[in-house]
Amino acid sequence: MKNLDEIIERRGTTAVKWNHLAEAFGCDEDALPLWVADMDFACADPILAALKERITHPVFGYEDGYDEAYTEAVTGWFKRQFDWELRREDLFFSPGVVPALGFLIDMLSEEGEGIIIQSPVYYPFAAKIRANHREVIDNPLICENGCYRMDFDDLAEKMRLSQVRGMILCNPHNPVGRVWSKAELKQVAAIAEANHKWIISDEIHCDLIRSGYQHTPLAKAYPKYREEIITCTAPSKTFNLAGLQNSNIIIHKEAYRKLWKKKVIDRFSISECNTFSRTATIAAYKDGEAWLREVNAYVDANFQYLSSFLKEHLPKAVLTPCEGTYLAWIDFRAYVSDAAELERIMRHEAKVILDEGSLFGENGNGYERINLACPQCILKDCLNRIAGALIRD
């Protein structure tokens, strides 16, 4: 197995996370980045071996990216992990989940119509809605003592709005780390069903689950309404393959499959993954489970370390309990009440690059999202820098 404590030098490569920090954030180049959601862990050995083997064949021409081996690997993974039966005809390629959101918003709504999101939430949701000239309808999560839950009364009220076409659900939720329970998922889907609205369910973090929790796909939790549920998945977060640009979009409804073919495949010829993403995805879904277990256990330990550190050194910070993802969501308002000042301190005094909570919505002001998918020594350095900047004698 991999040594997850190993520090792999990524500066000087094309890694977005580690390079051009001064240009992107106006900070020193020696700032420590724990922001964008990719891992600082080496890929699983079966993935690397499969890619090396593919390179030994010297021809890289056109290939059938969605052949039987590929679709069996994808559907087999979801059957084993979630007891979720998928059909080949329900799988569609996108170079990423964020592009898929753009495609789906364009497919399923018209300019001026509304789409519900649940802030604080992954900021491309709102960005893609606005870029497509639709209206963001916010159903904010309720936070009580650092723990988040859905506001179902508000959701039902907003689902009844005539201009609302549907919603984008984040499960597991980024950044607050909720793995929505089956009961919560059923309630969301029932509200959508009662109002004849579709749901796009972003489940890209579905495999990154903290110990003691279990992810349930929305379409499996409420199968009678699955035709109005489109699920976005990818091996990229699970196996650290974002640079290979591959995601699998699951569309059950024939009318929506025809729309995807018309709007995405016919218009833009976006239909299949490339040679290397295909190879990596098959290897990941066939032979990557042991590596994933090790990664989830390591991230569990990083969360435990983070929690202990905050209790000892920054006791007024509020760490949201994490059920899924490898992202920590921390309320620092007791130390710095102004979001802009908190950002300045983090970047220029602590010299750490995090995702500012304000990116995820106004109810994220004063929070920071920290990526814990890194060697623990990097996390320790980050936290020591933060404590040194926030606590002064």
TrEMBL record:
The keyword Lyase applies. InterPro entries: Aminotransferase_I/II_large, C-S_lyase_PatB-like, Class-II_PLP-Dep_Aminotrans, PyrdxlP-dep_Trfase, PyrdxlP-dep_Trfase_major, PyrdxlP-dep_Trfase_small. Its cofactor is pyridoxal 5'-phosphate. Gene3D superfamilies: Aspartate Aminotransferase, domain 1, Type I PLP-dependent aspartate aminotransferase-like (Major domain). Transmembrane segments: none annotated. Residues 38-374 form the Aminotransferase class I/classII large domain. Its EC number is 4.4.1.13. GO terms for molecular function: cysteine-S-conjugate beta-lyase activity; pyridoxal phosphate binding. The keyword Lyase applies. Keywords: Lyase, Pyridoxal phosphate. Belongs to the class-II pyridoxal-phosphate-dependent aminotransferase family. MalY/PatB cystathionine beta-lyase subfamily. This is cysteine-S-conjugate beta-lyase.
